Amino acid sequence: MPTNVIVIPARMGSTRFPGKPLVDLCGKPMIQWVYERSIASGVSSEVIVATPDQEIIDACASFGAKAMLTRMDHPTGTDRIAEVADTIEADVYINVQGDEPLIDMATIRAIAEPFNDQSVHMASVYSECPPGEEDNPSVVKTVTDLKGNALYFSRHAIPYPRNPRPFPLKKHIGIYAYRRSVLMEYPSWPQTPLELAESLEQLRFLENGIAIRMVEGKGSVVSVDTPEQADEVRMYLSTQLPV
Fold first, then answer.
1. Is 229 helix (H, G, I), strand (E, B) or coil?
2. Which pTM was predicted?
3. Alpha-carbon distances of 49 from 38, 97, 117, 156, 239, rounded to whole Å
4. Which residues pair with 131 in a beta bridge?
5. How does DSSP classify residue 149?
6. What's the CA gap between 69 and 147, in Å, rounded?
7. Domain 4-240 in CATH: superfamily?
8. pLDDT tens track for 176-205
9. What is the DSSP track for 190-206?
10. pLDDT tens sequence across 121-162
């Protein structure tokens, strides 16, 4: 069995919602909800918050989470995870986004399963694309080959329905897992043409010949990109918490 580490990249400098990792959600900062769900998944006993911000380091210390202070200038969350991998050795690193306080724990477990196959070097998750999201460019879609590997990711509704689609569109869920060897290569690769065209960093892996095994899972009820979405999460949590 491979050894897994869950890494949660988080930073205070969000353009649309500055400081969101520490926004209060029913008495806990958001990063604590993500950390606790990651632990509860049972995939790894080691969960690390990777951040360039001392405020997040201090917050993690207050609820007993392990955190690592990383460089400020990483262009992507994947680069930040690679810095962690340079210090903390494991077979597989699972990237759980820091703005997913309602992440489905079964989805975290699902993304770890493909790595029992030594030929798998990277994995991600899809779900059925809900009606009304097919043409939304903020909702990324994927198509896969017959082995379940990603052929492409796009903000466009792929495949184009020249004929009626025999299956629903696949919505990409932004959780990733990487073997250490692949993750350590990533920062040395320059940005690639398709990555730049779609503004999707996972295309850099495909363009460098890395197969991405796709597994079916569930997206979060709500991800937090705006203060309004934080309010939605509070409303949802208030219905789930014991009185």
1. helix
2. 0.93
3. 11, 10, 27, 32, 27
4. none
5. B
6. 38
7. Spore Coat Polysaccharide Biosynthesis Protein SpsA; Chain A (3.90.550.10)
8. 999 999 999 999 999 999 999 999 999 999
9. PP-HHHHHHT-THHHHH
10. 999 999 999 888 999 998 999 999 999 999 999 999 999 989
Name 173's Cβ contacts closer than 8 Å, sequence gap at least 6.
107, 124, 125, 126, 127, 217, 218, 219
Q: What is the mean pLDDT of residues 38-62?
A: 96
Other CB atoms closer than 10 Å to residue 207's CB: what's the count?
14
- Mean pLDDT, the chain, rounded, equals 94
* 27: region left, alpha or beta (phi > 0 left; psi from -120 to 50 alpha): left
Domain boundaries, the chain: 4-240
Q: Give me Rg for the CA atoms of the chain.
A: 18
Rounded Cα distance, 45 and 197, in Å: 38
In this structure, what are the phi and psi dihedrals at residue 188, rounded to the nearest 5 degrees?
-85, -10
Task: Tell me whether residue 178 is exposed, middle or buried, using C-beta atoms within 10 angstroms of its C-beta: 0 to 12, 13 to 18, 19 or more.
Answer: buried
CB 48 within 8 A of CB 68: yes
